[in-house]
Amino acid sequence: MRRVFLIFVFLIQSLNQSESFTSEFELRREKILKFYVDSVQLGKDKVDFFILTAKIKFSKEVKILLPYLDSLIQNPGIGDMFFAYQLIGLYLHCKENLPFEYRDKIKNVFKTRTIYRGDTENHWLMYYVAWYLISQEWENEIWSNLKTSSENFREASEYINYWVDGTTSFGQMEFDSPTYIITFVPPLCLLYDFAQDTLMKKMAQMMLEYILFDYAVEYLKGCYCGAHSRDYPELAVNPIQAQSQAIGYLYFGETEFDPRSMRKNAVIFCALSKFKLPDVIRYIATDRQFPYEHKERKRVRNVIRYGRERNPAVYKYTYMTRNYCVGSLQGGILQPIQQHSWDITFSNGLTIFSVHPYFSEIELGMFFPEEVKILPELVDRAHKVYRSPDKWTSSSPYERIFQYRGSLIVLYGLFEMVEGEKYRHVNIFIPRGVDRFEIDTVGWVIGKVENGYFGIRVLGGVYELKLEETCYRFRVYGDKICLIIEVGDSDEFGDFDRFREGLKSSEVDFDFDIFEVRYKGIRGFEMRFGYFGSRYVDGVEYKLNWGLFDGRFARSDLKSKVIEINYKGKKRVLNFNKLTIEETQAIQ
User: Fold this and answer.
1) Which of 21-25, 159-163, 232-236, 399-403 has the lowest average pLDDT?
2) Buried/exposed code over 100-135 (b: 16+ C-beta within 10 A; e: otherwise)
3) Does any domain span residue 106?
4) Do 245 and 341 lie in a common domain?
5) How many distinct structural domains can be found in the chain?
6) Judgement on whether residues 163 and 211 belong to the same structural domain of the protein
7) 15 pLDDT tier (thresholds 50, 70, 90)
8) Are 251 and 312 found together in one domain?
9) Which of 166, 315, 453, 533 has its CA 20 to 30 A from that of 150?
10) From what superkingdom does this record's organism come (predicted)?
11) How far apart are CA 194 and CA 189, in angstroms?
């Protein structure tokens, strides 16, 4: 009888907590929509398809909005996958409010405007979600690509299934991006809301849960923490301003709504969606009571030249606490142009990281089909800073990284650089907003950010310190550069002085000739890492061989297409082989 009573009490408590989460989600949802409907002023603020969707859907005077819609759809120079998915999203959300002539006008755009498919994972998803919904809406038509509705529908269905299969088997290619998450979640919301096929709708729901879990486990008060496949330089140094912040605000909370970036407008499709995030994922995003390590496996985007594998494995490691998160990749060229290999992100949004500002024809030629000789100039035109010695995002073939818990070793073998390659230096970003910052006599760069602490030891190189508007820029010169990074907080070490003294007493043995370092740090374990060698913790080889997810909150084996999400005994299993969701509730 007592067990039955305890079960009843637990279920009531869970129900109350679930209702609280739902209520908070609805308030955040309403705040987003209200801002874009009421606060964005026509004729003064920039208006796009997302904003028009919100305004048309809730406006009583649609007529005054139609000229703005005309201005967006009449420009013949616009016709890519962003345009297509946003326009069909507006149409489907607002169809009942649109005059019949505008429904026909939008349909005619898809019949006459060539839609550019693009060349990346996010491009193709948006492109095929658009054609799926267009072809579903208007049957028995011939479209601008000279294919029938049934042909476009079949091709789009096949690609979406192919993408889901690859992602859940081998990992995402444009993974964990604070910028590009808004090109995955909003299109999937559209697919979930408007796909008439029940299996496609279920698949969209499961992929939304999959991607949002992937974000949740590396979420800290509005920031997407750790390493990323693609990050813009201005957001790498200020992660709280990334587009992912709007997604995090809506689904997880613990941050303030900040619409300053226009590209955050994509969250409107999410706020309008009927998709509801399961409580178990929301708990994972916000529970930072105990530190945890989390490992993931992703894959490199399609390599078309200068490589032996089409999609080499990417291994991610993240260590999360309530005051900071530190995360990393294994190093090397894993994504062109915008790779963010490691960082510390503190709970107030400040971040620390390093980058070798590498650029080359080889890096770009691996992934882009154009003539390699002209690629650096073409990319520099688009991204402005690609060939800059000061840039804050970049891959490098001369970078190697080893992380274990809050300790990190980064090796830069710039002695391997070949003739014609520039910039034998590494840039370290330390924000001006740190509470304390000093360079001690042993060689540690030490600082404090609220309750989080950090230390950076530079070996094998010489550095200069430049004070910039937003940061302390350390520029380290050398052929064999080693960075040792330690991160801690008041929960683990007490006051800052104890952390600082622990750094001074750590043991460092750096062999410059063979380019190997042995480090016994403040937590007592010993790390050994060589540029040409393996990784070791306390003498045991640390192998990079885990599955897609491996940690306290989830497990997913390579090629399994099954992810088991777990929070305090409550399990939610996404089985993409069967397109099923199973949830079990443990009694505690």
Assistant:
1) 21-25
2) eebbebbbebbeebebebeebbbbbbbbbbbbbbbb
3) yes
4) no
5) 3
6) yes
7) very low
8) no
9) 166
10) Bacteria
11) 9
Cβ atoms of 436 and 496 closer than 8 Å: yes
Chain-centroid distance of CA 176 in Å reads 3
Closest CA to 358 of 393, 320, 327: 393
369 shares a domain with 267 = no
Report CA-CA distances (Å) from 434 to 138, 382, 390: 56, 33, 21
Please report, for residues 300, 308, 356, the alpha-carbon distance to residue 316 in angstroms, rounded to integers and kept in the order given.
12, 21, 19
Instruction: Quote the domain boundaries for residue 578.
Output: 557-584
Residues 6+ apart with CB under 8 A from 14: 585
Reported residue count of the chain is 588
Q: Is 3's pLDDT higher than 80?
A: no
**What tokens appear for 527 in the block?**
């790390």
Please indicate, yes or no, whether residues 238 and 300 belong to a single structural domain of this protein.
no
What's the pLDDT score for residue 75? 81
Q: Are residues 229 and 296 in the same domain?
A: no
Establish if 519 belongs to a structural domain.
no
Residue finishing a domain among 478, 496, 514: 496
Q: How far apart are CA 67 and CA 125, in angstroms?
A: 29
Instruction: Work out the pLDDT band at 588, boundaries 50, 70, 90.
Output: very low
pLDDT at residue 534 above 50? yes
Spatial CA neighbour of 470 closest among 238, 228, 239, 243:
238
In the structure, what pLDDT confidence band is assigned to residue 10 with cuts at 50, 70 and 90? very low
In a domain, 16, yes or no: no
Q: Summarize pLDDT for 16-30 with one digit per residue, the tens.
A: 556 666 789 999 999
Cα 342 → chain centroid: 13
Q: Are residues 487 and 575 in the same domain?
A: no
565 to each of 212, 282, 301, 573, 586, how far by Cα in Å?
12, 12, 26, 6, 13
Q: Across-strand partners of 455? A: 446, 486
Characterise 253 by phi-psi region: left (phi > 0), alpha (psi -120 to 50), beta (else). Answer: left
Residue 350 lies in a domain: yes
Q: How far apart are CA 304 and CA 275, in angstroms?
A: 37
Instruction: Write out pLDDT tens, residues 538-572.
Output: 999 999 999 999 999 999 999 999 999 999 999 99
Domain boundary among 286, 309, 326: 286
For residue 325, give both structure tokens.
């998160």
Give the rounded distance of the alpha carbon of 416 from its chain centre: 31
Backbone angles phi, psi at 311, to 5 degrees: -135, 75
274 lies in the same domain as 371: no
What is the model's pLDDT at position 110? 97
**In sequence order, which ranges of 138-184 are alpha helices (DSSP H)?**
149-170
> Any idea of the CA torsion for 31, 32, 35, 36, to the nearest 10 degrees?
-150
Determine contact, residues 554/564, Cβ cutoff 8 Å. yes
